[in-house]
Amino acid sequence: MAEARNRRGTPAMSEDRAKLHAGYLRDLEARSVTPKTILTYGSATKLFLEWLDQIPPERVDLAELKDFKDYLERVRKISPKSIMRYYSALQSFYDYLHFEGKVKANPVPTYRRRYLKPVRREAMKDRSGLRQVPDIETTKRYVHSIMDVRDQALVVLLLKCGIRREEAVDIDLEDIDWREFSILLKPKAKRTNTLVYFDDETARVLRRWLSIRKARGAGDSGPLFINQSRERLQRSGIYNGVRNSAAEAGIHDPKGGLRAKFTPHACRHWFTTHLRRAGMPREHIQWLRGDAPQAAMDIYIQVDKNAVRETYRNCIPQLGL
User: Fold this and answer.
1) CATH for 15-126?
2) What does the pLDDT read at residue 11?
3) Which residues are CB-contacts of 11 (< 8 A; sequence separation ≥ 6)?
4) Positions of CATH 1.10.150.130 in the chain
5) DSSP symbols for 164-207
6) CATH number corresponding to 136-315
7) Do the beta carbons of residue 235 and residue 166 sit within 8 Å?
8) Residue 6 has pLDDT above 60, yes or no
């Protein structure tokens, strides 16, 4: 009888492996891993278990890890950056197997150190992997060229607050403190501090958007950014709002590398770069970005939020809005 195979042509998982995989996913949930990571890691490990075919996952060694990388590159045409994510998932999976006593050691870290080159470090060598950070004059022309009031408010908020796309998605009107000019973001796994500040010109742009938002029939509560159906603007809507307006302004080339593109994450780079150039202390920028401490001494630095707000208002670039 022919062996069952899935749509990719790799053998379908056996019942035992399906149970093992389901146990791993439950473990991720129990450790409060984000749903996005669970989805990514679950897909990567499922493909790996199917690819193994007759090889028991408990007997995987460096040879299988090498062969799987070759399969991802040659057959699946996976990019180096995505391959790094696959092996992050495999390392997590084998951590789980080790914790459960199913393997004596995790073979993935040794393989990654020897055979996987850090993509970011390689990109830094020729500078082609750095994201675009427009100067202030170019940025002024860009934001003034955005005709859609919502998209202009969105871009300015991302530039001035340095928040991530998913953080912008979740902002509700109730999260904005107009007296303090601050926003309390929803808790996220990647963010340590949830309080960010904005300046006067950001406030003016946001208020213009709120008047349009109200005219479209939206209420006085709920999501800050909405679509034409008055529903919460999602990640794709935010990405398109930034990308499309940047393309019209001539600072986004979808066919170019990172230095030719301007996306929501480029706004975060812009925020960090220009605050640092303006002389804002590193620990204040780190606090606003919500970054975890990166050095042993960082955990002893006590940041005064009032001092951060003052240095922010002094250092954040003005765009003439």
Assistant:
1) 1.10.150.130
2) 57
3) 3, 4, 5, 50, 53
4) 15-126
5) -HHHHHT-BGGGEETTTTEEEPPP-TT-S--EEE--HHHHHHHH
6) 1.10.443.10
7) yes
8) no
Average pLDDT score over residue span 184-210: 94
The contacts found for 250-253 with CB under 8 angstroms, 24 or more apart, are 251/132, 251/134, 251/138, 251/142
For residue range 32-64, what is the model confidence (pLDDT) as tens digits?
A: 888 888 999 999 999 999 999 889 999 999 999
The pTM score is 0.62
C-alpha dihedral (50, 52, 54, 55), degrees to nearest 10: -140
CA dist 63 and 318 (Å) reads: 55
The end-to-end CA distance of the chain, in Å, is: 71
Q: What is the pLDDT of residue 173?
A: 97
- Give the mean model confidence (pLDDT) for residues 153-176: 96
Quickly tell me which residue has 């970005």 as its tokens: 289
Q: Which of 138, 75, 97, 89 is nearest to 266 (CA)?
A: 138
Kindly state the percentage of the chain with pLDDT values over 90.
65
Please give the average per-residue pLDDT across 66-78, as a whole number. Answer: 93
Question: How far is the C-alpha of 272 from the C-alpha of 159, rounded, in Å?
Answer: 9
Q: Are the CB atoms for 201 and 319 separated by under 8 Å?
A: yes
Tokens coding 95: 């951590």
